[in-house]
Amino acid sequence: MKSICVNCGSNSGLGTIYLEAARNLGQYCAVNGIELVYGGASVGLMGAMADAALEKGGRVVGVITEYLNSRVGHRDLSDLIVVETMHERKKVMFTLSDAFIVLPGGFGTLEEMFEVLTWAQLGQHNKPCGLLNVNGYFDGLINFLDRAVDHQFIKSEHRNMLLVGRDISSLVGLFVKYCAPITEKWITSDPGK
User: Fold this and answer.
1) Which of 20, 30, 73, 178 could be cross-linked to 128 through a Cys-Cys bond (beta carbons 3.0 to 4.6 Å apart)?
2) Is residue 141 one of the residues assigned to a domain?
3) Total domain count, the chain
């Protein structure tokens, strides 16, 4: 993996545990020569992660809309790509990344994760995607997805596309072993079209 896209909150969350996890992930990418691709903000978990990677000499690429850039854009990144729409933002982030890690966040974080998973389910890519389940933050979501399998709304092979780790090295270890399920390509091979 040469690059990892991280989706995470523009808020810091409760306490310091989430900020620490974001900083640790930023440092991990920098120390291991992995380019960090993220939403380009200077605030919350996003900003903390980017700053930590930059402090360790890592390469950090932000992708942000013009609207968000004027309000919360990070000014010190290795590269900042400014786009017009959120759809374009997600497509650029996808194209630049070999894998996806999801840290705690809100609606936007979850929407980005589910879109990447949907693209994988439709056979449009085979890049690994995983939750970094800091402080059990995603336990309820994981239970919901397992329930969706039990109720036959999600196939087990598609549920298993979302990898889960409680620490960075175990999650990256799952990425290295990841083998995407064989899925019929339903649409175009270009996500986001």
Assistant:
1) 178
2) yes
3) 1
